[in-house]
Specification:
Number of helices of chain C: 17
CATH superfamily of the largest domain in chain C: NADH-ubiquinone oxidoreductase 51kDa subunit
Shape of chain A: globular
Helix content of chain A: 25-40%
Strand order of the largest sheet of chain C: 3-2-1-4
Chains: A alpha/beta (885), B alpha+beta (154), C alpha/beta (427)
Radius of gyration of chain C: 22 Å
Strand order of the largest sheet of chain A: 14-13-24-23-22-15-16
CATH architecture of the largest domain in chain C: 3-Layer(aba) Sandwich
CATH topology of the largest domain in chain C: Rossmann fold
Oligomer: heterotrimer
Distance between the termini of chain A: 75 Å
Bound molecules: flavin mononucleotide, iron/sulfur cluster, FE2/S2 (inorganic) cluster
């Protein structure tokens, strides 16, 4: 730390940082565009100009860009200097020469960084009287809307999209004042993180195309802190509602989890909440009934507790699962997951609990300096993690920049000296993955061979780890290279998960991590989960769905919680299970085959309409809050199933913590409903929310009583404290003069790091011991005559159950296929897209078009996870595949 | 599709540079030499050969003024519009050329004989005004000289 | 006294290029022989540094010093590169073309010496696409140099090896800016790069790279062959050597002349360029290409070297003068210049892409008789806006130079345009 002087006042500053970073961290208002805390400095927009003085004698000074100048000790700068002030206003004036000034019809209006900066610099009068340059806009697909005329050429979009997210179908074209940012032709943006352009763009060039269908200004949204339920990562999001419709989801900064970015599944899946397939009213034997009647029916049906069987869900909250467990009793509560997958999930939890390796946060993943991925196409199974892994390959080359004394925030300079150098990222999976472009080495193999590589690496690192029998020489050589790189690293990381549905793969990953730890490395082990609460459900301690199905008690009442059993069981088994029950009670959001079997169907509130807690794959418990009060008869599942002594979420959490020791930390994930900031609740509506008294004036002139929220410290209205609440309760980011999402600056103690009031959530899983090596090493994969080992393939769009019901996501869901490699397809007389095959899945024959995946090992076939034809099939499975003539 | 010849010429360039990307401008110029311009299809083909995305390549193509992303006539006449030529009578030459050809900058004559473009200083300032037709420099222009030059390109 | 003209005296007067044989006959490649035989790379650097050679590309940076930034020794990153900047696109500048077309081997030898001095492995000549004849002659000369053992492995039987590649550009002024040039060579958009790191430390493909102007490099063989005392004696000033000066515009004999560094402007314009055409009066001059400040009558005695021209309020730049006469509209000329810079802005930093575009529009309107009273203030604001340090690279500050000096020296002309709502030079 050193002292710098800003307008004569001394401040402590870190010389490793740049002046813009320091000024913003000090809470000073200095405008900027091209700089972004996650993208670093490039000095393009010239907006953050300040005056710098050589010493206290220097009165003239010179203009420098704060973002490009280190905060070296004794630096003297002025923000208020008139030249600097005039220059900054001039920059805005220049940017606005061709900007259409169309704020009233622009979706960014009211949360536009360009608007904020324009006001901040005081530029308010247009002096230029010439024709503006105009562009043709492009159709960029269902997520992102393009309006190039608003562009101010800050280059953030291409820097994020290309350099940060690894996309290559968006670029800058042409030059001078006519630079065009777009694709080289119209078409869907290919990168899975394209939605971040909406927040990265400081004005309205890239806006949320889904929001356009039900547009609402930021100030009119009712917002709440929520958690993304679309995969196991648990990204923090802010969701907004008006008139009972969920309008959009934006990123909610969390320094350890998602930072500034989301994946497109997480951002655009929200629309399933508005789906016409929502279950909105309780039904008794198919007839709609009132909520009150439903409560009565439910009480009657569950009167005989001994006959109850509860099927929980990895996509339902801890509270909902716990309520069900309390209702039916721990020994009759089952995870709604088939046994093979359930074993995988529980084993993963055990591995992480046992240690020795620790599960890292995404932030730690981003800073790991050598990575081995076993069996996962992370971009499709845990998308946001892939973005962090993509950054991790920059860690080792950063050392080059450090040696040349290039400040690490000087983004372009660092990229110039590092060039294409990348740190070691090794990927072993059955097929090409979306991270291969940054992979140092990729190995395509059957799941068993992926595991064998893992075990071989473990053995190379630590001779105490069991040796892999019959290892091929090339694989051993590869294992040696990987082992070397991991051993040399300061922060090595192993990533694995359930995508291969292979216990051996996960166990081999655990062995590598243990081997590293045994040789003194602080190794990290990240195990992916596919559902948002898989680990939470596992920590509740239950048995698999198969065991429930095997029960033969008579006169059973089966309660299915937020789960479509037909995705986990073959249809005939699911039918038999549900039909053999005397009564079936289903709680869910969307109509599905399970719901169709319900005698009593109860509408369950979605994440956006309820409060609850989820445990991410990191083992982090995080609370989400309802964005808007659910409609009359839609209720939180836990509330339908509640114990008589529970009146609010706090009661559920208290019991949950008491009854389930591994989850005792959940109460600390967020403040209780009792929390008050300066004696008041935290408002979900902005201080500028308009129209409350008029919103329902077409129905009644009486202003309805504002809804109350017994479950949280948030109010549903704009009434409340204007203090910064604890991180978990932060409903939106907004600050005087900072209307865009970049107002998050004002909520961080230091730019880019934790929220001043703390990042939300608690880690529940910490390693306890030294672990043990797994010894079940599978044999080398041997293909079979005329049979293929069928494995599932994860897809960011389509594999997850709920998100595919969002119209925008639905447009990008995969077409059905069966994947084979070229030779295998050829052996059936087929090539890519040239014909169909027949395959039996879940007991029925299905026809599927063949897709050629060149990298797939011979003897392996792939089927997209989430393909309805494959629901209930347990993977991997050997199947005959016949060509249809 | 790239012709065998184009492909071979591009591959010869590849041997001289450490990355494929470094050859992309040369590659576009090779195709342009053969076809007169670089079409969307050529952008895709070259990008594929050099393991770039079409957007990568087009971002480069649209930066440089000697890469033509629109079809041009049989001959490309480029009239210097920089300062020395301007002093020496560029505006008259411009008028004369556009009158004679019946087209403006950026256009091609209906018979496809000439495309007319402006160009920056040709380094012939001591013999201004100057113009370049298909890589050949013509200096000390006046109306008659321009007529002669145009005559020479059929 | 007949003045020595080392850079140009061997250039054939018939418009042909000096052949390899011809070059050798006038002492060509002797500098290289001497360096390889008896000088260490550091000694070559040292000699050039002591000779006081300053870059002829416009900025006048000391060449030997630039070379000394390149990491040397066995641990230095490899490969290292040298690049001859033959992009010459500065309006009004035509000296490098003359050197390349007339004596390509001189450039090649200079580049080899630069490579030897920095122990580079690969040399590029980055030449603009429009210079077709120079390209052909350089290509032939490079082939001849390979055949004669001046390039390739074991150059002149020493352990020094060098590959030389002629790279033909695809246009854009920004390619002349040395980091933009590096991006262009890498097959990218020619945006400039952040400095630091400077190219001698991390340039092409992240490796040490030195970029020098054609004329700069053409000086090097002579310095090495004939020594620095001789070299320094060539000059009439504290900036050493000769300089290729040029003049264009309405002078009697536009052209190029190699003269002692520090030759006064009046001498060049009157004795060599023959003075103004009959009936025209001198009004001003851009002393070193389009991106230098106007000088006027009172500056005619200024010795044309880096130090003195700067003192007079402009820059030596490329030393090729563009002369403004009294029958040519200064506003029109400024408008033409700003149009060029606005068009060639790479589009990276705001003051440049927006400010120049605006200035261009104001000037064009003024020329068309649509000037407005506030215009001069707006233009003056732009010149401050585009000052060095305010923009990312030197293009925009370069553009501001003719604009700010035109506003200073030709203010009445601007005012008349606005007052009369027309260009007084247009009938
Ligand atoms: C916009 C711009 C264009 C330039 N164009 C050229 C050029 O065409 N040729 C050149 O030698 N230097 C040019 N320069 C200067 C180079 O950046 C660089 O200083 C020069 O090549 C270094 O060589 P020297 O040290 O031998 O002069 C240009 C600079 C700028 C800012
Ligand atoms: S001054 Fe800025 S926009 Fe202009 S050429 Fe340089 S970097 Fe590009
Ligand atoms: S200004 Fe036209 S050739 Fe130089």
């Amino acid at each position: 730390m050193g002292t710098i002087y800003i307008d004569g006042k001394p401040y402590e500053a870190d010389p490793q940082k740049n002046l813009l970073h320091v000024c913003l961290s000090l809470g000073l208002d200095l405008p900027y565009f091209c700089w972004h805390p996650a993208l670093g400095s490039v000095g393009a927009c010239r907006q953050c100009a300040v005056k710098q003085f050589k010493d206290d004698q220097d009165k003239k000074g010179r203009i420098v860009m704060a973002c490009m100048t280190p905060a070296a000790p004794d630096t003297r700068i002025s923000l208020l200097d008139l030249d600097a002030v005039a220059f900054r206003a001039g920059i805005i004036e220049g940017m606005m020469l061709s900007h259409p000034h169309d704020c009233p019809v622009c979706d960014e209006g009211g949360e536009c960084h360009l608007q904020d900066m324009t006001v901040m610099t005081g530029h308010d009068y247009r002096r230029a009287e010439f024709q503006k340059r105009t562009f043709r806009n492009q159709d960029l697909g269902p997520f992102v809307y393009h309006e190039m005329n608003r562009c101010i050429q800050c280059y953030r979009c291409v820097r994020f999209y290309r350099q940060y997210a690894g996309g290559n179908d968006l670029n800058a074209f042409s030059l001078a004042n006519t630079v065009f940012f777009g694709r080289n032709e119209d078409g869907v943006l290919e990168n899975e993180f394209a939605g971040n352009l909406i927040e990265i763009c400081p004005t309205g060039v890239f806006t949320d195309r889904t929001l356009r269908n039900h547009y609402t200004r930021k100030w009119d949204l009712r917002m709440a802190p929520s958690i993304c339920g679309q995969c196991g990562i648990g990204c923090n999001v802010t969701a907004g509602e008006r008139y009972g419709l969920l309008r959009r989801v934006v990123n909610r900064f969390h320094s350890e989890v998602n930072g500034y970015f989301l994946c497109d599944r997480g951002r655009f899946a929200y629309e399933f909440v508005n789906s016409p397939n929502r279950i909105r009213a309780p039904q008794l034997d198919g007839e709609a009934i009132s909520g009150e009647a439903a409560e009565w029916e439910l009480q009657a049906l569950i009167a005989n507790r001994d006959q109850l069987i509860g099927i929980g869900s990895p996509r339902a909250s801890l509270e909902a699962n716990f309520a069900l467990r309390q209702l039916v009793g721990a020994d009759r509560f089952f995870a709604g997951v088939e046994s093979k997958e359930w074993t995988l999930i529980t084993t993963m939890v055990e591995i992480l609990k046992r240690g020795p390796a620790r599960s890292p946060s995404l932030n730690e993943i981003e800073h790991s300096d050598a990575v081995l991925i076993l069996g996962e196409d992370v971009t499709n199974s845990a998308p946001r993690m892939a973005l962090s892994l993509r950054q991790s390959v920059r860690e080792q080359p950063m050392e080059v920049a450090k040696k040349l004394q290039v400040p690490l925030w000087m983004d372009d300079a660092v990229r110039e000296v590092n060039k294409e150098q990348r740190g070691p990222l090794f990927i072993s999976a059955p097929f090409a993955t979306r991270l291969d472009d940054v992979g140092a080495m990729t190995y395509r193999a059957a799941p068993d061979d992926v595991a064998r590589l893992g075990f071989a690496v473990a053995h190379e690192i630590d001779a105490h780890a069991p040796e892999v029998p019959g290892l091929h020489e090339e694989v051993r050589a590869m294992a040696r290279v990987i082992a070397d790189a991991l051993k040399k690293a300061k922060r090595p990381l192993v990533v694995s998960g359930p995508s291969c549905r292979s216990l051996a793969v996960v166990e081999s990953a655990a062995s590598v991590a243990k081997a590293l730890c045994s040789s003194g490395q602080p190794a990290m082990l990240s195990l992916i989960t596919l559902e948002c609460n898989s680990f939470g459900l596992a920590l509740l301690g239950t048995r698999s769905l198969d065991e429930a199905v095997a029960l033969t008690a008579k006169d059973r009442t089966v309660i299915v919680l937020e789960n479509d059993l037909y995705r986990h069981l073959p249809a005939n088994r699911a039918d038999a299970f549900l039909e053999s029950a005397a009564r079936v009670i289903v709680l869910d959001h969307l109509a599905n085959r399970t719901a169709a079997k319900a005698s009593l169907l109860l509408p369950a509130a979605t994440i956006s309409e309820s409060d609850g807690t989820l445990v991410s794959n990191e083992g982090r418990a995080q609370r989400y809050y309802s964005v808007f009060p659910h409609q009359t008869d839609v209720r939180e599942s836990w509330r339908w199933l509640r114990q008589p002594q529970w009146s609010s979420l706090d009661d559920v959490l208290a019991d949950l913590a008491k009854e389930t020791p591994p989850l005792s930390g959940v109460v600390d994930a967020a403040p209780s409903s009792e929390f008050r900031a300066a004696g008041a609740k935290v408002p979900r509506e902005t201080h500028r929310a308009s129209g409350r008294t008029a919103m329902t004036a077409n129905l009644t002139v009486v202003e309805p009583k504002p809804p109350v929220d017994p479950d949280s410290a948030l109010s549903y209205t704009m009434e409340g404290a204007s203090l910064q609440p604890p991180g978990a309760l932060q409903p939106f980011f907004w600050s005087p003069g900072w209307n865009s999402i970049q107002s998050v600056n004002k909520f961080q103690s230091e730019i880019g790091s934790a929220l001043r009031t703390g990042d939300p959530g608690v880690r529940l899983i910490e390693p306890k011991g030294e672990g043990e090596y797994f010894t079940q090493i599978p044999r080398h994969f041997a293909r079979r005559e005329r049979e293929w080992l069928v494995i599932p393939i994860e897809h960011i769009f389509g594999s997850e159950e709920l998100s595919r019901h969002a119209p925008a996501v639905e447009k990008l869901v995969f077409e059905p296929y069966l994947a084979l490699n070229v030779a295998d397809a050829g052996s059936l007389g087929l090539e890519d897209g040239s014909g169909e095959v027949e395959i039996e899945l879940s007991g029925t024959k299905h026809r599927l078009p063949v897709k050629v995946l060149p990298d797939l090992p011979g003897g392996i076939a792939g089927i997209p996870h989430g393909l309805p034809a494959a629901f209930g099939e347990v993977f991997p499975t050997w199947r005959r595949v016949e060509r249809i003539q | 599709m790239l012709t065998v010849e184009e492909r071979e010429e591009i591959e010869a360039e590849l041997a001289r540079y450490p990355t494929k990307e470094a050859v992309c401008i040369d590659a576009m110029k090779i195709v342009q030499r053969h076809r007169g311009w670089v079409s969307d299809e050529s952008v895709r083909d070259i990008a594929e050969l050099l393991e770039m995305s079409p957007a990568d390549l087009d971002g480069v193509a649209t930066f440089y003024n000697l890469i033509f992303r629109k079809p041009v006539g049989r001959h490309v006449a480029m009239l210097c519009n920089s300062v020395s030529c301007w002093i020496m009578g560029y505006e008259k030459m411009h008028k004369h050329l556009t009158d004679r050809l019946g087209i403006q900058f950026g256009e091609t004559t209906p018979d496809n004989r000439f495309t007319l473009l402006p160009i920056v200083c040709l380094g012939a300032c001591d013999h201004a005004p100057a113009m370049l037709v298909d890589n050949e420099l013509h200096t000390d222009l006046g109306p008659e000289r321009i007529d002669q030059v145009l005559e020479a390109y059929k | 006294m007949t003045q020595e003209r080392p850079l140009t005296e061997a250039i054939p007067l018939d418009g042909q290029a000096l052949s390899l044989r011809g070059y050798e006959q006038v002492g060509g490649y002797q500098g290289l022989r001497k360096a390889l035989r008896e000088m260490s790379p550091q000694a070559v650097q040292e000699e050039v540094k002591k000779a006081g050679l300053r870059g002829r590309g416009g900025a006048g940076f000391p060449t030997g010093m630039k070379w000394s930034f390149v990491p040397m020794g066995d641990n230095a990153p490899r490969p290292k590169y040298v690049v001859a900047n033959a992009d010459e696109m500065e309006p009004g500048t035509f000296k490098d073309r003359y050197l390349m077309e007339g004596n390509p081997h001189q450039l090649i030898e200079g580049l080899i010496l630069a490579a030897y001095a920095t122990q580079a492995d690969v040399a590029f000549i980055f030449i603009r696409g429009e210079y077709k004849l120079a390209q052909e002659r350089l290509a032939k000369a490079i082939a001849d140099a390979y055949a004669a053992g001046y390039l390739g492995k074991k150059i002149l039987k020493s352990d020094f090896a060098l590959e030389m590649i002629l790279h033909v550009s695809a246009g854009r002024y920004m390619c002349g800016e040395e980091t933009g040039l590096l991006n262009a060579l890498e097959g990218k958009r020619a945006n400039p790069r952040s400095k630091p790191p400077f190219p001698p430390v991390a340039g092409l493909w992240g490796k040490p790279t030195t970029v020098n102007n054609v004329e700069t490099l053409a000086n090097v063989p002579h310095i090495i062959a004939k020594g620095l005392t001789w070299y320094q004696s060539l000059s009439r000033s504290r900036d050493y050597g000769t300089k290729i000066y040029g003049a264009s515009g309405k002078v009697k004999r536009p052209g190029l002349w190699e003269l002692p560094m520090g030759t006064p402007m009046r001498e060049i314009l009157e004795e060599h360029a023959g003075g103004m055409r009959d009936g025209l009066r001198f009004r001003g001059v851009l002393p070193g290409g389009a991106s230098t400040d106007f000088l006027v009558e009172e500056h005619l005695e200024v010795p044309m070297d880096f130090i003195e021209v700067q003192k007079a309020g402009s820059r030596l730049g490329t030393g090729t003068m563009i002369v403004l006469d009294d029958h040519t509209c200064p506003v029109g000329m400024t408008s033409n210049l700003i149009h060029f810079f606005a068009q060639e802005s790479c589009g990276w930093c705001t003051p440049c892409w927006s400010g120049l575009n605006w200035a261009k529009q104001i000037l064009a309107a003024m020329e068309e008789g649509r000037g407005e009273p506030g215009d001069l203030d707006k233009l003056a604001f732009q010149t401050k806006f585009l000052a060095p340090g305010n923009t990312f690279c030197a293009l925009a500050p370069g553009a501001a130079e003719p604009l700010q000096s035109a506003l200073k020296y030709f203010r009445e002309d601007f005012e008349r345009h606005i007052l009369e709502q027309r260009c007084p030079w247009k009938s």
